What does this fold into?
Amino acid sequence: MIRNVLVRRILFSGIVGWIGIDIYMSVLLSLQHAATPLQLFQWDASNALGAAAFSGGFASALLGLFFDLVVSLAWAALYVMLFERKERAERSFLLRGILLGAVVMLAMRWLVVPLGHAVSPPATISSIANLLAAHILSFGIPIAYVTARIRS
It folds into this structure.
C-alpha cells in the first residue's frame, strides 16, 4: 500500500511539474528568446544529440519533451523520497516547493545542462531571475502541492 502511494505521488507530481515547466517553455521562453516551442524542445534534445537535434524536426522535439518528462519524474521522485511521509509533505509545502524549484533551477542550469551538448545562452540577471521564478512557480510549488495532496 505504501509503495503504491509513493508511486502515485511521484507519477502525478512529476507529470504536473512536467506540464508546468513545458507550458512555461512554450510560452514565456519562446517570447524571451524569439524561438518557437519546436526549437525549444529541440534544444532539450540537443543536450543528448548535439546540433543534430535542430535538424531532426518534430521527432527531435518529441524526444526533448520525453527528456523533460524523465527529468521531471526524477526530480519528483527525489522530492517524494525526501518527504515521503504525508505529514511532512503537507507541512509547509509552499516553502518546500520554493526550495525545490530553486534547487532544480540551479542544478539544471549549472550542473546537468553543462554535462551535455546543449549550448546555453549567456546568463544575465534577468534570465536567471526568469528561470528561477519559472522553476519555483511552474515546477517546484506544483510538485510539492500535488505530493502533499495525494492521500494514502
Summary: The mean pLDDT is 89.
